[in-house]
Amino acid sequence: MRKLKNSELQRITSSEFKKAEKNPIILVLDNVRSAMNVGSIFRSADAFLIEKIYLCGITASPPNKEILKTALGAQKHIEWQYNENTISLIKTLKHPDNYLVAVEQTKKSIILSDFTPPKNKIILIFGNEVFGVNQKVIDLCDTSIEIPQYGTKHSLNISVSAGIVMWDILQNIKKDNISQ
């Protein structure tokens, strides 16, 4: 078995990415304090051909040097927008074409593996590394999902969580498209 060279990976270019049909997922980062986490999420959003990222509140935005360090250029072609207030953004995004999902541990959260993505566009909301998704934001969501965990810690790093959730939801979307 031989490791592939980057030139053999047949990835699309930045301009092809901008023109490509995106997966029906939008990310909202609610007061994420680490710019390195933000950059890592940009990079994962690139890998999964995500439609857009909203950066809210204290969340850093490009061209922050820590974002640039971890995004490795993904911030150049992923559509993104800064919004000062997460709640006002969520109210704007709340309509029948969108399904708002807080990635948070709540009394009614659905375990990720049990979550069946709807046909709507999925808006995934990720929260602050310490405080999570703001309760007022959760109150506006259609549901909440959580990643099952079996150790002593009660949470995963936000960039790790974002990658896991995007991958799992896209696998379910692909399965659903194949079965139609």
Task: Please characterize this protein's 3D structure.
Helix 2 (35-47) links the parallel strand 1 and strand 2 (50-56). The chain has one domain: Alpha/beta knot (3-Layer(aba) Sandwich). Helix 2 (35-47) runs parallel beside helix 3 (65-71). The radius of gyration is 16 Å and the shape is globular. The chain has six helices and seven strands; from the N terminus they run H-E-H-E-H-E-H-E-E-E-H-E-H. The chain has a seven-stranded parallel beta sheet with strand order 3-2-1-6-4-7-5, with helices on both faces. With 180 residues, it is of the alpha/beta class.
List key phrases describing it:
180 residues, Alpha/beta knot, 7-stranded parallel sheet
Strand content: 15-25%
Largest sheet: 7 strands, parallel
Main sheet strand line-up: 3-2-1-6-4-7-5
Class derived from helix and strand content: alpha/beta
Shape: globular
- SS field, number of helical segments: 6
Give the N-terminus to C-terminus distance in angstroms.
36 Å
CATH superfamily: SPOUT methyltransferase, trefoil knot domain
Can you tell me the number of structural domains? Answer: 1
**Count of strand segments:** 7
Query: What percent of residues adopt helix (DSSP H or I)?
Result: 25-40%
H/E element order? HEHEHEHEEEHEH
Q: Which consecutive residue ranges, at least 5 long each, have pLDDT under 50?
A: none
Oligomer: single chain
Q: In angstroms, what is the radius of gyration? A: 16 Å
Outline the fold blueprint.
Blueprint (H helix, E strand, L loop, with lengths): L13 H6 L3 E8 L4 H13 L2 E7 L8 H7 L8 E4 L2 H8 L4 E6 L6 E2 L9 E6 L8 H6 L2 E4 L11 H22 L1
Parallel strand pairs: 1-2, 1-6, 2-3, 4-6, 4-7, 5-7
